Amino acid sequence: TVTTTTQVVCTSRGWRNIFSLPISYDxxxxxxxxxxxxxxxxxxxxxxxxxxxxxxxxAVVDAEVxxxxxxxxxxxxxxxxxxLTTIVINGGExxxxxxxxxxxxxxxxxxxxxxxxxxxxxxxxxxxDIAGMAACLYRRGVPFVR
Length: 146
What we know:
- By secondary structure, the protein is of the alpha/beta class.
- It has helices at 42-46, 63-78, 98-111, 125-138; strands spanning 5-11, 14-20, 56-62, 83-89, 119-122, 144-145.
- The protein has a four-stranded parallel beta sheet with strand order 4-3-5-6, sandwiched between helices. A two-stranded antiparallel ribbon has the order 1-2.
- The longest helix has 16 residues, at 63-78.
- The protein is globular.
- It starts with a strand and ends with a strand.
């Protein structure tokens, strides 16, 4: 059950609606260096089992993370029979641009991400911001795993 509170504040020229919604999310800790270990199913579990039975995933990956762990990330999903489609983007503050969001949106359209299909964002804060923006613009309610 979701409980919300609503408050209306009247002013001389109108009113203000104030809503309080509960926000919750899970943070699962993983031992350092084991995120993409073949025996760790957390990343696979986080992306869910798809009722349609399709075995694909979409991921936005930070360029530096891809240099260090790209092969491990791809092999992690390959070992589970999952075809991983990735887009690699730069993760600096200067890279927070519409062009980065547009590149992700183009790749999402090419991939044909379904509304309830989660997509992954792997990297630092800027990459997560850019990928989150793209998720919101692509389709309302797209689950976003970071």
